[in-house]
Amino acid sequence: MMIDFEIPAELVELGARVRAFVETEVVPYERDPRVTAHGPSDELRDELIAKARAAGLLSIQQRPGGMTHLEQAVVFEAAGWSTLGPVAMNCAAPDEGNMFLLSKVANPEQAAEFLQPIIDGARRSVFAMTEPDGAGSDPSQLRTTAVRDGDKFVINGRKWLITGAINADTWIIMADVVDEGATLFLCHGNAPGIVIERVMNTMDRNYVEGHCVVRFEDLVLPESAVLGAVGEAFRYAQLRLAPARLTHCMRWLGAAARAQSIAVEHAKTRMSFGKPIGEHQGVGFMLADNEIALQQCRLMIWWACWTLDKGGKGRHESSMVKSMVSEELFKVADRCVQVLGGMGISDETPVAAIFTDLRAFRLYDGPTEVHKYAIARQLLRAK
Ligand SMILES: Cc1cc2nc3c(=O)[nH]c(=O)nc-3n(C[C@H](O)[C@H](O)[C@H](O)COP(=O)(O)OP(=O)(O)OC[C@H]3O[C@@H](n4cnc5c(N)ncnc54)[C@H](O)[C@@H]3O)c2cc1C
Predict the structure, then answer these.
(1) Which of 216, 199, 198 is nearest to 207 (CA)?
(2) Which end of the chain, N or C, is less surrounded by CB atoms within 10 Å?
(3) Which ligand 1 atom lies nearest to the CA of residue 365?
């Protein structure tokens, strides 16, 4: 089967509609004081969600019939033009990936109770896997335990870097059921036994309510809280991660393209040594390298989407795309900072924020080295 790069006219139109929404309704909020050192506040999120709802663009990926991965690539890139765009449209992490996972694995009762309120934009969700001294790049180091007690489970452990934990209602928790394996559990955020220790101070500021350290202290959950089957957490996590790491690439591609557009405009008008800086080869080459990298990233993303849309698992492809795209977009943002001169490191433009957020992207949903490790392992083990 050939890859067809022709994007249907309706999809081009939808992408343009999303971009127009983000430019007119969302970008003006970028300097809102409710974009804090710990990301946008819930209050700001609610306001943005109302705007996307009114524009008919809320949770667009969950519309009846869903969206293909390629459709998401076009729409999420447009949403990512502002880092607040995906927040408004409810297609930001971790909710977007959690909605995907729950729509695949939750039973009808769980879907009604935990998934629908997220789709409606009324509630947020968390995915709690990473631990300070256990699960990280290697989730098999999981230390949080779930011990059976009659028909209940008692969960104990400590997690960190848990995005959006404050005020989140739907919790997906990974814990090791002793002798039966890693398992995902679903519960509400107000369940006794969930303790939020603190919000971490991190260099990124694009995720709602930041990232937390949390503790589970004798969190008691019924059998019905198991998401899918006991012992299947890693399989479900992979189901979530392959498309989720691609959607990150899509959104960040939009943000990096925005940084490039700002750098290009600046290079046209800022003068030095008698001409616009863009006319100096050193600056022109940076802009050209950016343009090449952005298009490379876009095509890599579309290629992985094409694989998934054909029914493939896309695990290997999404690893290749995530490692390449996160590294290249970071370099794009870095060159944009350079082109802007001293202004580049200030908050006079959104470029500095895009740069620091892209630094974080090289770590989450699999650090670059871990994807390369997986790619190399597959190559070396292939018969
Ligand atoms: C902004 C942000 C948001 C996040 N949100 C969440 C969340 O909501 N929920 C959640 O559960 N987690 C979340 N995380 C955690 C994230 O998934 C982990 O940071 C990531 O899996 C890496 O794990 P770690 O931090 O423990 O690093 P480690 O696993 O300790 O890795 C440290 C270093 O060792 C390298 N390394 C590890 N293994 C190998 C290998 N085989 N080959 C070569 N190098 C290797 C890594 O590349 C890295 O450079 C978030 C992280 C960030 C930065």
Answers:
(1) 199
(2) C
(3) 17
